[in-house]
Amino acid sequence: MAIRTPLTDIFGLEYPIVSAPMGWVSGGRLAAAVSNAGGLGLVAGAYGDPVWLQPQLELAGAEAERPWGVGLITWAAPPETVELALRYRPAAVFLSFGDPSKHAERIKAAGCALICQVQEVEAARQAVAAGADIIVAQGSEAGGHSGVRATLPLVPAVVDAVAPVPVLAAGGIADGRGLAAALMLGAQGGLMGTRFYATAESLGHERARARLVAAGAGETVRSHVFDIVRDFYPWPEPYVARALGNRFVDRWHGREPELQGALTEEAPAYWRARDEGDVDVAAVFAGECVDLIRAVEPAADLVRRIGAEAEALLRGGPEFLA
Q1: Number of helices (H) and strands (E), helices first, in the chain?
Q2: Is 75 part of any domain?
């Protein structure tokens, strides 16, 4: 018997596990692998680039035999990107970082479940008012962009604020222990990004995936420098990105105004480094759960193992009672 929650009921899942839509990492193959294994896989819409997104949606649509979804950065996604995603009939659309109301009506009209990721309690209430079917409470332990609140206190606060709307926990979850803990906080499942970055189906560069396996949580840093050097992605406040520290961070963190003035040289060099997998310069966005990643594995194996670990822990709970 697998774990059953409102999340698993909505999508017919075997495990309350969702893979995060990580830009240029979570493609159609990864989403399909997670979904076919019994979780919910999400294709990343990145910054709304149809040239990148469309082939990934086609892959997910062709390879997924179970429900899958697509994730979009709310402030960066134009209406035409939303329409492109909806043409592939995803079971869910995931919006994060911004007011979901500008896209919510169209998504709901298409029959998709609307999942909204938030970083604070008031934003959760606003997302529910906009029509969110599921809320993701994302803590600052997460890789990539997040807010300032930690997962452990944020999740139950959001659960209380939006009940009975289901809530998923995100930030710092990479194994069955984290998933079981999230369920005990009142969440109905877990969203995992960093752990699925280090999978065989991930589109992350092989050097980036190897770096995740070798890294520890103490090597992560929250900084604006990668957003500055990728200067056509002007991330709004209060979101800050967590990534593995590297030579680029060592050089520019704390010297952001100087980096702004050096973009003519630094931006082209950064994009070359990203294309070449030079992780001493390019960002490897990763959360504090990186300590728990010990190998690059098939996504399906992860889904099944994490689900089984969480189920075993939940069944063993009565042992703690006198």
Answers
A1: 15, 11
A2: yes
What value, to the nearest 5°, has the Cα angle with vertex 119 and ends 12 and 5? 20
Q: State how many domains the chain has.
A: 2
Domain that holds residue 249: 216-285
User: Residue 78 has which token pair?
Assistant: 């134009």
Instruction: Give yes or no: residues 303 and 194 share one domain.
Output: yes
Asked if residue 149 belongs to a domain, the reply is: yes
- Per-residue pLDDT tens listing for the chain (322 residues): 589 999 999 999 999 999 999 999 999 999 999 999 999 999 999 888 999 999 999 999 999 999 999 999 999 999 999 999 999 999 999 999 999 999 999 999 999 999 999 999 999 999 999 999 999 999 999 999 999 999 999 999 999 999 999 999 999 999 999 999 999 999 999 999 999 999 999 999 999 999 999 999 999 999 999 999 998 778 888 999 999 999 999 999 999 999 999 999 999 999 999 999 999 999 999 999 999 999 999 999 999 999 999 999 999 988 888 7
Do the domain assignments include residue 206? no
pTM above 0.90, yes or no: yes
DSSP secondary structure letter of residue 134: E
| CA–CA dist 152, 171 (Å, integer) | 9
User: Is 239 a member of any domain?
Assistant: yes
Burial class (CB in 10 A: 0-12, 13-18, 19+), 20: buried
- One domain for residues 114 and 164: yes
Tell me, yes or no, whether 109 and 227 share the same domain.
no
Pair 172, 256 in one domain: no
Q: Are 169 and 26 members of one domain?
A: yes
